[in-house]
TrEMBL record, chains A, B:
Pfam families found in the cross-reference section: RecR_C, RecR_HhH, RecR_ZnF, Toprim_4
Residues in Toprim domain copies: 81-176
First and last residues of each zinc finger (C4-type): 58-73
InterPro entries: DNA_Rcmb_RecR, Rcmb_RecR, Rcmb_RecR_Znf, TOPRIM_dom, TOPRIM_RecR
Role summary: May play a role in DNA repair. It seems to be involved in an RecBC-independent recombinational process of DNA repair. It may act with RecF and RecO.
SUPFAM superfamilies per record: Recombination protein RecR
HAMAP family found in the cross-reference section: RecR
PANTHER family, sorted: RECOMBINATION PROTEIN RECR
Coiled coil location: none
The name this protein goes by in its record: Recombination protein RecR
UniProt cross-references to Gene3D superfamilies, sorted A to Z: 3.40.1360.10, RecR Domain 1
PROSITE patterns (alphabetical): TOPRIM (PS50880)
């Protein structure tokens, strides 16, 4: 790589910093792209460029969207009064692949963490409290990881919503201890949702 | 992903087809890029765009370059009369990381393969024969994998260059059986180069 042209070295360095990639896989990827400029490099560039220009965060739920409010929030058939609270967009996508949940979401953007000094105001928890306070919500389903931080966050949200009287449930059976939602198979997520219990 | 916006789904699908990535790692990558648009997405786009416009194949050696002839071929200090023959650009980069070889390269673009019906005319072998025939070459170092196809290719090239009288050597000690060059550590490549033997 010492003698790879500077532009190419810079691209490899960019790629190597992405999650799941390292210098070796980045070199392989960049070579692949250069050697398949028309079939691979140009379509990828065009797709990245479109997403770079269009992607934004849904102002209601925190999902990633190509409009100010996402397709799930604007779908009136999904205004069921159920809000599923997830840690991040990857978890929302995992829930959608499960295909069982028909309501709307609220993406926290993380979990509470004493260690990382992440408090409620760093997440979209105040927005969730406002959203529930505005009415029309029957049930808040806490679909958070079965980790210490995930469960701390679940309890915090249940407390924060206590005064609203809304029903609060949590994914139950099917989420293994220490398990992260995004790693579960789709069937397990569906089972956990159907067996949700009062929190 | 069912409900990810179409542009984002298309980008994930593009990414998932790249070597070493799959749907799950592609989703993670795309989320990472979207959520770090300024720190990650835009610099990656710019770097990809530069490489997409500038990358080309060196007309002399087959290396990837940002000019018609690559930086190694135009570096007169590297016109030592030694040509190192490698399978692909990843192997050239691996040799360069070793930092031992000071001559020039010839990138074949693959190895002969009866199974895949890859013959000499599918590789840059005729160009190598021409290049050696044009004079100024003292030694051709065959730095090919210790695989059946790699060694078949080495023997074919040795035969094809036989009439030129040029010295032909091969990487020796240090390349493990079945080993691919690009997986070796840098020190091993240097040792194999220094211990090269007549072929
Ligand atoms: Zn939304
Ligand atoms: Zn060159």
């Amino acid at each position: 790589m010492d003698r790879a042209p500077n532009d190419i070295e810079a691209l490899i360095a960019q790629m190597a910093r992405l999650p799941g990639l390292g210098p070796r896989s980045a070199r392989r990827l960049v070579l692949h792209l250069i050697q398949r400029r028309d079939q691979s490099m140009r379509p990828l560039l065009a797709a990245l460029d479109r997403v770079s220009q269009s992607a934004q965060t849904c102002s209601q739920c925190g999902n990633i969207s190509t409009a100010p409010v996402c397709a799930i929030c604007t779908d009136t058939r999904r205004a069921t009064g159920e809000i599923c609270v997830v840690e991040d967009v990857a978890d929302l996508w995992a829930m959608e692949r499960g295909g069982v949940f028909k309501g709307q979401y609220h993406v926290l953007g993380g979990t509470l963490s004493a260690l990382d000094a992440i408090g409620p105001e760093d997440l979209r928890i105040p927005q969730l409290v406002d959203r529930v306070g505005n009415g029309g919500v029957r049930e808040v389903i806490l679909a958070l990881a079965a980790t210490v931080d995930g469960q701390t966050t679940a309890h915090y949200i249940a407390d924060a919503l206590g005064h609203t009287g809304v029903k609060i449930t949590a994914l139950a059976q099917g989420v293994p201890m220490g398990g992260e939602l995004d790693y579960l198979d789709d069937g397990t997520i569906g089972a956990a949702l159907r067996a949700r219990k009062d929190f």
